[in-house]
Amino acid sequence: AAPAPAAAPARPPAPAGSGGSRGFDFAAFAEARVRGRGGGGALGALLLSPRTGTMPSTHTLLQEARGLPHGTVCTARRQAGGRGRGGNAWESPEGCLMFSVLLRTAMGGERVPFLQYVASLATVEAVRDHAGGEDLGLRIKWPNDLFVGGEKVGGVLCTSAYREGSFEVAVGLGLNYTNSQPTTCVAELMAAQHPERSLPPREALLAGILERLEGHVGILEERGFTPLRDSYTDLWLHTGQEVHFEDGETLVVEGLADSGFLLARRKGGSETFELHPDGNRLDFWSGLLRQRHP
After folding, report:
1. 66 within 8 A of 98, measured Cβ to Cβ
2. Which whole-number Å values give the CA distances from 67 to 43, 62, 126, 254, in the listed order?
3. Residue 148 φ/ψ, nearest 5 degrees
């Protein structure tokens, strides 16, 4: 059986043995939360991390446990059974920032799918914050992958269940932080583009992502995704991207529809369409379906 995770609130001193190359530095995380703009919110107030640094899956733990409070975070340095979209295995080498956070929300079901968007947005923004405001080229591939150039460096997975009048959502993230394989990582981007800057500890970046995410979730609950849409599309890969169909038609991506699907216009024309994945492929961009947009 996997060792039981250590648990700690964010503010007390780190338990003995929690730092080092394999453990999570609770004290560094607590300090980063206090330094943040909000001074530490609900997300990350309770944090779980295995003493050995390795566990089967942060996401599965939050899904299967009962009674954990809103905002509980589970993080690990290695996962033996990390999960990606469609049930695929997620590679989780040493150096990857991996965590899942439990959200309980009374927002309407039509807004829940946007949580993957705000989690992706929060991650890109937090990386930029921790690079001193510099753009390292990290971008969102709709709906929830993170790319640099043509290489994937991260991704978001959201799973939800409806219980007792609210949604319980596990939001998971994997981001190549100091691992240069299998593609590249934030550390390499920072060293290549801004060698004068030091890489912040993963605990500080985790605190920054959670702070950004908490703010975005609050906006999503109160006002929907519209106030965040421009920020999301400013950091994605797709404005102006052409999508070609087998019948010879070409559509040009313009943004996101209110539904959260892609909004595209017929090339050389004025008619607009929503583009939906067909639901049968791991790559959402393969087999897109068209529906006329009113």
Report:
1. no
2. 16, 10, 29, 43
3. -125, 115
pLDDT at 127 > cutoff 90:
yes
The number of residues making up the chain comes to 294
pTM for this model (two decimals): 0.88
In angstroms, the CA 127 to CA 116 distance is 17
| Nearest by Cα to 125 from 143, 105, 106, 146 | 146
pLDDT at residue 173, as a whole number: 96
Per-residue 3-state assignment (H helix, E strand, C coil) for 92-161: CCCCEEEEEEEEEECCCCCCHHHHHHHHHHHHHHHHHHHCCCCCCCEEEECCCEEEECCEEEEEEEEEEE
Nearest Cα to Cα of residue 277 among 84, 85, 83: 85
Assess contact for 155 and 147: CB atoms under 8 A. Answer: no
Secondary structure E strands in the chain = 5-9, 46-50, 54-55, 73-76, 78-79, 96-105, 138-141, 145-148, 151-163, 166-176, 242-244, 250-256, 262-266, 272-276, 289-292
Cα–Cα dist 278/255, whole Å: 19
> 230-234 long-range CB contacts below 8 Å, 24 or more apart?
231/121, 231/125, 232/117, 232/118, 232/120, 232/121, 232/140, 232/256
pLDDT digits (tens, 9 = 90+) for 20-29: 345 789 999 9
Mean of pLDDT values over 159-182: 93
| CA–CA dist 267, 249 (Å, integer) | 8
Residue 242, Cα to own-chain centre: how many angstroms?
26
**Does the structure show a pLDDT above 80 at 107?**
yes
Find out whether the peptide bond into 200 is cis, omega within 30 degrees of 0: no
With pLDDT > 70 as the criterion, what percentage of the chain qualifies? Answer: 84
The answer to whether residue 148 scores a pLDDT higher than 80 is: yes
Quickly tell me which residue has 């379906």 as its tokens.
289
Closest-CA residue to 59 (of 96, 98, 6): 98
